[in-house]
Amino acid sequence: MLSTQKTSVVRAGAGERKRSLLTRLRRIRYMRIVFARLIFLLPLVVYLATFYGYPLFYSIQISLEKYDLQSEITGVTSFAGLANYMADFHDPTFKTAALHTLLFTMLSIVPQFLIGLALAVFFSRRFPLSRTLRVLFILPWLLPLIVSGTIWKWLFNEANGLIDLVLSGLHLVPAHFSWLTTPGWAFASIIFVNIWLGIPFNMVILYSGLQTIPQEFYEAASIDGASSWQRFLYITIPMLEPVIGIVLMLGFIYTIKVFDIIYVLTQGGPANDTQTFATWSYNLSFGQQLFGQGAAQANMILLISLVVAVFYLRWSRYSTRSI
């Protein structure tokens, strides 16, 4: 009887030790998996912290300090709170830059999207040389912005620019017309160039979205007697709605911070006629050496972009739930 009890106790103890060992091995295995995941995430975290986190923190820090050329030389700054933001708001250039930024963004996004959508629908049909033409349309998007801006600056040149030569030859504009130094026309010119640059991006994203729409929907609509326009309105547009949201959001964020093209073509002139938030931030920082105000203006651009991104995420979540 005693031997039987001892045997059962030994077996129970052995089972307990075995379960404890298995639990420990599972815990060690789980810790190894977590550690491996952290190791893979570490380069990304370091990259984001170095190239995004630190510059953002430094920009916010400068915007809250009285940081100018003297501070840059001496290394001594003083806390200014929201004084730089208030100085930007009360600057006469603020209203001009805000209006130009709004007009530049809206007048660029809408034509880019409409033309890009039209080209995406056009290239969704198979025809000879369609791939070659798609590649040619994408080329402007692949060029560095400085290169594109320099090319267009030559095209708009009043002395020997191709645009001036063609249009003056057709008697549409006076000879040697100053496109980039005439108020009104300078602003129209940078909008035209930005539209040209943004069309390939819109076309590529929308074309990819069109490829995901099942052809069965179009075939069923055709059998029911739907016209091409009805198929576009009631099939293409609703199915493309998520892609359209992404395109418009990214287009807004990209356009509101455009600097390269404007600076190469006009540098914000003439007489602030093409001054936007991005170029004004640069002028405040590196033209007037008011680094605190320039950082504050750059942070305003970031804040506007974040608001648009949050609005898009909420809209996307709502539209997904409604479906």
Protein described:
Keywords: Cell membrane, Membrane, Transmembrane, Transmembrane helix, Transport. This is Sugar ABC transporter permease. Residues 98-312 form the ABC transmembrane type-1 domain. This protein has helices spanning 2-63, 69-74, 83-90, 92-123, 130-142, 145-155, 162-169, 185-211, 215-223, 228-256, 260-265, 277-287, 291-322. The chain has two domains: 2-63; 85-322, MetI-like (MetI-like fold, Orthogonal Bundle). Helix 10 packs antiparallel against helix 13 (291-322). With 323 residues, the chain is mainly α. Helices cover 79% and strands 0% of the residues.
How many structural domains are formed by the residues? 2
Overall helicity: over 70%
Q: Give the CA-CA distance, first to last residue.
A: 71 Å
Largest sheet: none
CATH class of the largest domain: Mainly Alpha
The helix-strand sequence is HHHHHHHHHHHHH
Assign an overall shape. flat
Structural class: mainly alpha
Total DSSP helices? 13
CATH architecture of the largest domain: Orthogonal Bundle
Tell me the radius of gyration. 30 Å
Topology, number of strands: 0
The overall pLDDT average reads: 87
Full CATH superfamily name of the largest domain: MetI-like
What percentage of the residues does DSSP assign to strands (E)? under 5%
Regions with little confidence, pLDDT below 50 for 5+ residues: none
Protein name: Sugar ABC transporter permease
GO biological process, one term: transmembrane transport
Membrane topology: Multi-pass membrane protein
Keywords: Cell membrane, Membrane, Transmembrane, Transmembrane helix, Transport
